[in-house]
Amino acid sequence: MIQSMTGYASATRELPSVSIAAELKSVNSRFLDVQFRLADELRAIEPRLRELIAARIGRGKVECRVAVGPSAGSGPQLNVNESLLAALAQASRRVRATIPDAQPLRIGEVLHWPGMLGEDKSAQLRDACLSMMQTVLDEFAASRAREGEKLAHMLIDRVERMTVLLSEIQPKLPQAIVAYEEKLGTRLREALGANNEERIRQELAVFGIKADIAEELTRLGAHLQEVRRVITSGGAVGKRLDFLMQELNREANTLGSKSVSKELSDASLEFKLLIEQMREQIQNIE
């Protein structure tokens, strides 16, 4: 099934002392553009998170947010690492003995020293975040697939309507051309006179060649079949479908420029309207 570039997923995981909240959302983009908003404790794993996302997502502007906060129900606790504190104090005294002008350590600097407030669990936090991101990506892919399924139904519906419209105008084309040739012949006789039948026949023959849209109708039908095939095959088909919309629009414009009746002009206008509706939605397909 085709994938939409619009998606959303989130998850929360409770650890013994902290809580991790991850959010992933995306909108359409020509390429893959990933932006991160991570807690300071998780900056080191940004490249690995980028790899995980790139392995699952081909296109889209993706925003990844991961916040770290206190675990639910856990009260504030400060467990000072006594051995580390003693070692830091001894090192500070040695430095000041060698460099008397050196400034002593402030309390804030001591408390922010890595590992000072208990065991350093940053590695466990990063591993938990990477594990949770796999779950978020699964949900995220599922949301994009559901959105893609809706888009596929909408596109197939438009293809069906254009196919029906094409089958309606094809049988009427010869009659419309004959009626217009009769009207054109009458005007030419009024303008050139009855003694210029050869010239009139030449003009009508040239008109018949220019007004023939059998090739355009055939190509239009072939493009519609290809659109249906691409949608059914699934995968990353957004760029392919966008190209097909350009081809369909070119044929619809030709139908309008060669129109010999109001009915054909109306059909060309409806074709272009349906194609534009499809094109707008295809911008959201990966």
Oligomer: single chain
Number of helices: 9
- How many separate domains? 3
User: How many DSSP-defined strands?
Assistant: 4
Helix content range of the residues, please?
A: 55-70%
How far apart lie the N and C ends? Answer: 11 Å
> What is the arithmetic mean of pLDDT?
83
Order of helices and strands: EEEHEHHHHHHHH
Major sheet strand order: 1-2-4-3
The radius of gyration is 35 Å
Major sheet size, sense and barrel closure: 4 strands, mixed
Could you say which structural class the secondary elements and strand pairing correspond to? alpha+beta
Low-confidence stretches: none
How large a portion of the residues is in β-strands, by DSSP E? 5-15%
- Gross morphology is rod-shaped
Record keyword descriptors for this entry.
Ribosomal Protein S5, domain 2, rod-shaped, alpha+beta, 286 residues, single chain, 3 domains
Structural account:
The protein has helices spanning 46-56, 82-98, 107-111, 122-169, 173-192, 197-211, 214-233, 238-257, 262-282, and strands at residues 7-14, 18-27, 32-38, 60-70. By secondary structure, it is an alpha+beta fold. It folds into three domains: 7-74 and 124-144, Ribosomal Protein S5, domain 2 (2-Layer Sandwich), CATH 3.30.230.10; 82-111; 148-282, no CATH class. Strand 1 (7-14) and strand 2 (18-27) form a beta hairpin.
